[in-house]
Amino acid sequence: MPFAQPSLHPEVFRLWREAQDTRVRTRLGGIYYVLAWLLIWLFSSTPAAYPLSGLCGTLYFGLLCLLRLYHRLPEENSQRALQRWLDLHWVLILLTGLGWGMAQLWALGNPDFQPSHGVTILATVAFGTAMAFNFPMRKRRTLAVIALLYLPALLALALAGETQRASLVTLSVYLSYLMLVLNRSHREYGVALALEQELLLQRAHLERLSHTDRLTQLGNRHALDSLFPVLLAGGQQPNNSLALVLLDIDFFKRVNDQHGHGMGDACLAAFAERMRAVFRRDSDALLRLGGEEFAVLMPDTSLEQARQRAETFRDNLARHAFDIQGQHLQVTVSLGVGCFMPHRDAGADAFFKRVDDALYRAKAEGRNRLVLAQE
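The chain above was modelled as a monomer; its predicted structure follows.
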């Protein structure tokens, strides 16, 4: 999932990117809470007097660290799954912030932990800074964690009176700076996210253009090269089959010679529309291979099913002329039809050649006919 192609749906993509960033930025952060707590405990004046507190704090932050580390991203790339993962992961982050706030409130209010007060305040500053810079994607949740980190420290310092006034003022001023940083980071993250999505949309558009025939809007030879190996792998599975229909418009050169290339292009476009009308299953891949040669890849289709549909198309084309630019243009088509046979076809090239040979036999035998590939 972390390296899967993201969905280009705006909301799903936003959640996908947020989950990726949250996962990467939170993986190692939990260990520093463990280390900071150990430093506070061990640098106190009498750490041996608080074995239970030291152990409980270490176990608490250690457990949250492990949960954050091993909370894997969902396999399902859906809005619901991603939102559920994010909500649960933020619970772990909030629990970490809450635990730290309670720990420092206790440590700052305990005279035995006076030697480690500097470590406590420094760690709070570091954790708050990390939150503001690393998690701007969810502004309100980040504010909640920063509040859990800072407010207990500010309360403890305020209760300490004059002796901690300088620390109280300094920490308060720095907290206001973190609010400014968080606001700026939140805006920058939104801009970067929008830019990334726009780039992905443009790349997907260019990818579609590179695999689409401009005249007919069918797939082109590049699309065939991409689809063929994938569909062929499925066709090699038990109970699956892959049929291929190759089509060649008969005497198409005469159309260009007699009516001009403009009429020829209109004929090709009309031919593609007729293909869509007959081969209209979502699973069928309709392609223009070049010139007047076309193809249909039909997964989960037996040889007889492919023959019937191809024959329906041939008969329909022979019976119904195209009405183009006020003229009736009658065309016919020759077809080769085959089904992938693992024991016969060594691969995609061998399969394609076997069906292509059937197409040439149809043309050699008089055209306007269908020939099955030899088994």
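The mean pLDDT is 88.
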